[in-house]
TrEMBL record:
Pfam families named in the record: His_biosynth
Family the entry assigns: Belongs to the HisA/HisF family.
SUPFAM superfamilies membership: Ribulose-phoshate binding barrel
Domain of life: Bacteria
Keyword Ribonucleoprotein listed: no
Keyword list, A-Z: Amino-acid biosynthesis, Histidine biosynthesis, Isomerase
PANTHER family xref list: 1-(5-PHOSPHORIBOSYL)-5-[(5-PHOSPHORIBOSYLAMINO)METHYLIDENEAMINO] IMIDAZOLE-4-CARBOXAMIDE ISOMERASE (PTHR43090:SF2)
Organism name: Merdimonas faecis
Keyword presence, Transmembrane: no
GO CC aspect terms: cytoplasm
Single Gene Ontology BP annotation: L-histidine biosynthetic process
Pathway listed: Amino-acid biosynthesis
Full protein name: Phosphoribosylformimino-5-aminoimidazole carboxamide ribotide isomerase
Transmembrane residue ranges: none
């Protein structure tokens, strides 16, 4: 079990937000924390502490007036820590190489491979052929509906028709090196782990999985490790003292 740090960028600033509050309309989000530091500051910190595989996430769509500023922040982070960070947010087979050449170790994709609410294996194949399976991360972030977890796209705003199950993870595993899964219903709330989701993810055997959402205290982290038997990596955002929370970064960074 490893700690995967994050750099979430919205409206050109490093932020922590409540995931389910994000809206493209008006570039709105309920904010937990806005950093006075740029993305490169956090990238350099993670580099100095030997934390690899962190996630830089662009939370504005390309249509946003803020996208240029958000992208500049993201590229600055990749430049500060080449080979140490993954990047997601609007990634496609057509633009993935730009980010890899800028220093990303992996690209993270969601909406591109779940177009119109369905699994698009042809697009996964295209991405795999373009960047290589070993440099692709598929984001299976999900929300609960009618008792099941459904993969969500477009910065967690749109439900797909795809249920997140062990079977779908096994099928998609051939196209990626890792999975990233935000439990969107608890993302940014530091109110505890989505335990059912954590158990589901720990049952997957083929690829490394990183979970994000709800870890709000050292006790939550211990509970998560017990639930997953230490088989799933984790991200902490809003609850980390780097971003105004109570969990000490100095303690969490030991999980590397």
């Amino acid at each position: 079990m490893r700690f995967r740090p994050c750099i979430d960028i919205h409206n050109g600033k490093v932020k922590q937000i409540v995931g389910g509050s994000l809206r493209d309309s008006g570039d709105e989000a309920r904010e937990n924390y806005i950093s006075s530091q740029g993305a490169e500051y956090f990238a350099q910190l993670y580099k100095e502490d030997g934390l690899k595989g962190g996630h830089v996430i662009l939370l504005n769509p390309p249509s946003s007036d803020y996208f240029g500023a958000t992208k500049r922040q993201a590229l600055a982070a990749l430049e500060a820590y080449p080979g140490g960070l993954q990047i997601g947010g609007g990634i496609t087979a057509e633009n993935a190489e730009e980010y890899l050449e800028a220093g990303a170790s992996h690209v993270i994709v969601t909406s591109y491979v779940f177009l119109d609410g369905e699994v698009r294996l042809d697009r996964m194949e295209k991405l795999k052929n373009t960047v290589g399976r070993e440099r692709a991360v598929i984001d299976l972030s999900c929300r609960k509906k009618d008792g099941d977890y459904y993969i969500v796209t477009n910065r967690w705003q749109t439900f797909t028709q795809v249920r997140l199950t062990r079977e779908i993870m096994d099928e998609i595993a051939d196209y990626c090196d890792e999975f990233l899964v935000h439990g969107v219903d608890v993302e940014g709330q530091a109110a505890g782990v989505d335990e059912e989701l954590a158990r589901l993810l720990s049952a997957h055997k083929k690829r490394r999985v990183t979970y994000a959402g709800g870890i709000g205290s050292p006790e939550d982290l211990m509970r998560f490790e017990k639930l997953t038997e230490g088989k799933v990596d984790f991200t902490i955002g809003s609850a980390l003292d780097l971003f105004g929370g109570a969990i000490p970064y100095q303690e969490v960074k030991k999980y590397r």
